[in-house]
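Hey Z.,

So I finally got round to the S-adenosylmethionine thing we talked about over coffee. Here's the setup:
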Amino acid sequence: MKTSTRQPVIKWSGSKRAVAHILCRLWPQAGAGARYFEPFVGGGAMLPVRPVADGVAGDTIKELVGLWIEIRNRADKVLNHYSRLWHQRESEGHQVFYRVRERFNREKNPLDLFFLSRTCVNGLIRFNARGEFNNSLHHTRPGIHPDRLSEIVYCWSRMLSGIEFLAVDYRATLDSVGAGDLVFLDPPYAGTRGRYHPESFDFEAFYRELERLNSVGARWMLTLDGRAGARIYEKEVPPSLYQTSVSISTGNSPFTRLMNVSLDGVVETVYFNFKPPAEALRAAYSKKQASRRQTSRRRR
Ligand SMILES: C[S@@+](CC[C@H](N)C(=O)[O-])C[C@H]1O[C@@H](n2cnc3c(N)ncnc32)[C@H](O)[C@@H]1O
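And the result:
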């Protein structure tokens, strides 16, 4: 099977992987010298389909950003570390996972985080309120074989050249955004934010930042989760801040899967401070309709 960056290198809850191919068509034509900014990078699903090569990506989780930098700069080292632990876990059993988890929570080595993320339940990176990784070993699955993983890591490593990574608050990542730059915004989910980061997210401050981006002439696309099953997480983005919006289905929430509750799809609203190409917008809209039809068929 041909491997590519379509397979995630870092699995992330709330990843835009399922809709990245739809969203990437919604950008306007980038002007010469335009840069790409992604200040809530998480699992970086939009990076392989970014509209321009050069840019800046950030996140407040230091070890996650550290891992991105290692994947970009030292793919060999990432893979050797994973392979050594993976084989150790094969021969010595599940205690290896828990020893690495303890060590990661003490020393915060991003390479340990990578091993944990690839061998834990559903591959979900999850921290408790003290910032400790707390997901368990996936007992029935050994985690991806190092040989298969190597293709994925090398592919991503090449693709990431041109991206600078910062372990900072989103406003610091956006500090140097200028006219014509393209910004993809995927802030923490209202329904899940506490699980990744103990701090809650200040949407009022976020809207002020959108206003600033408008004033410097940047073009941004913002995704906000709307509904997952019966729960409604929608945020009201002040209409004066954006020009267009569309709702699309992003599939099942990994958190609801993990918790074994409702498997209803998550619907997101995507906001733009520009007019996306009409055809791409129509296609995004019809995808939503198709996926709604599928959901209602499953319910019957
Ligand atoms: C919904 S996830 C992004 C998912 C990503 N688009 C993907 O496809 O994998 C939101 C991310 O924002 C990060 N985050 C939360 N608060 C932040 C802040 N104040 N500044 C920067 N990043 C933040 C979280 O750590 C999380 O990785």
